[in-house]
Specification:
Blueprint lengths: L7 E9 L5 E11 L2 H12 L5 H26 L9 E3 L2 E12 L2 E9 L2 H8 L3 E3 L3 H5 L9 H8 L6 E6 L2 E7 L8 E7 L1 H12 L19 H7 L3 H4 L13 H10 L5 H23 L8 E5 L6 H10 L4 E4 L10 H14 L7 H4 L9 E3 L2
Parallel strand pairs: 3-6, 7-10, 10-11
Antiparallel strand pairs: 1-2, 4-5, 6-12, 7-8, 8-9
């Protein structure tokens, strides 16, 4: 798994039961990208127009880097490659356009994750499942979020309604009702770390790639007049199912905020931008989740789980909810998504559908991903 933070690759070896449930996290590893590669990938993923050749070559390059990550995991764990059932690789998202637009009288939507599964399979000698999102889109869905299927496997509680919040570049939430007969609800709430990462570099210098533990955000106060103007954006009001990406909550959105808040105190401006993440989560829960399913527990994972400002504000905005990190439930917040795509890869080979119509809007549950043979 490599997320929109572009910091590197998360790898996990997991043991899965025959029924597709997680038995244990056997080994994990984080392989960082070099600063030059981060810069190049940022250009590739943030610019609206890119070189076709570069796009193709980075698809190959990332396939090789994912394969290298697998080799390092095998060496670290001491596990033999013939004992690995399959590799599930999410890839790196370059573009996500879930909104449906007509092109030559055909309704289209699209998402692109690079890191060619054929290269991973060839380099490792292990069957590889990749490109999970487009099958869901083919069936009319948004292609995201996909982790809610995993959230239910990991965190279902028959006595409590549970919400799982993953704060990556974009924040997404899953509501798991205690009544198993009820469908889960899940959608992207809005910006996660990505907008904050862009803002901290813009306001405090390129030497700050992200707001460590939310320290910069804690220096100012929220400007609620500015927050109200930001929150008029139609995405926050749109009914689920819905998904979004850095194309929406990226540089153009930050430029809009900085222009709108040009007279706001410097520290208050950044605090308000950061507050947008927990505020949009709280707003989404209150606006889109019926009281019958409102969560009693909120389990936070992803890179944003380390942002103490996010956690503090979530607890303040949702005083009736027990806000905890996923490691309190035995799941490392940094590796939940890598664990998830391992399980999704397993499901693909077992022909188990992993996309949920109530979450993505697809017409029916779909078996996801493309299979690359070694």
């Amino acid at each position: 798994m490599s997320g929109t933070s572009l910091d590197g690759i998360d790898g996990a070896i997991v043991e899965i039961s025959d029924g597709g449930k997680l038995k244990s996290l056997v080994e994990s590893i984080f392989v960082p990208f070099t600063s030059k590669l981060q810069e190049d990938l940022r250009d590739l993923t943030e610019n609206k127009n890119v070189s076709k050749e570069l796009l193709c070559r980075y698809d190959f390059l990332l396939g090789k880097l994912f394969a290298d990550c697998v080799e390092r995991l095998l060496k670290k764990s001491g596990i033999k490659r013939e004992d690995i059932f399959c590799i599930g690789s999410h890839g790196l998202t370059v573009a996500h356009y879930p909104e449906k637009k007509r092109l030559h009288d055909v309704e289209t939507s699209f998402t692109l994750q690079i890191g060619d599964g054929d290269i991973i399979a060839y380099k490792t000698g292990i069957i590889t499942v990749s490109d999970f999102r487009r099958k869901d889109m083919a069936a009319g869905g948004e292609g995201a979020p996909l982790i809610p299927f995993i959230d239910r496997l990991l965190f279902y509680n028959e006595k409590k309604n549970v919400a799982c919040l993953n704060i990556g570049g974009i924040a997404n939430i899953t509501i798991i009702p205690k009544d198993r007969k009820k469908e889960i609800i899940a959608f992207d709430t809005g910006p996660g770390n990505y907008l904050s990462d862009l803002a901290v570099k813009r306001l405090f210098g390129e030497e700050n790639p992200y707001d460590f533990e939310g320290n910069f955000a804690s220096k100012g106060r929220v400007n609620f007049d500015l927050l109200e103007k930001i929150f008029r954006d139609e995405y926050f009001q749109r009914q689920p199912p819905k998904s979004t990406g850095k194309e929406y909550f990226g540089k153009d959105f930050l430029d809009f905020i900085l222009q709108t808040g040009k007279n706001v105190d410097f520290n208050d401006l950044f605090t308000t931008i950061s507050f947008l993440t927990p505020y949009s989560v709280s707003h989404a829960l209150k606006k889109f989740v019926d009281s019958e399913y409102f969560p009693e527990v909120l389990i936070v994972s992803g890179g944003g789980a380390k942002n103490l400002f996010f956690l503090k504000k979530l607890k303040k905005l949702l005083p009736e909810v027990n806000v905890i990190r996923s490691d309190h439930m035995g799941i490392d917040p940094d590796f939940k998504e890598a664990i998830g795509f391992a399980i999704l890869g397993f499901n693909t080979l077992k022909k188990i559908p992993s996309s949920l119509p109530s979450v993505t809007g697809c017409s029916s549950p779909q078996v996801l991903g493309k299979i690359s043979l070694p």
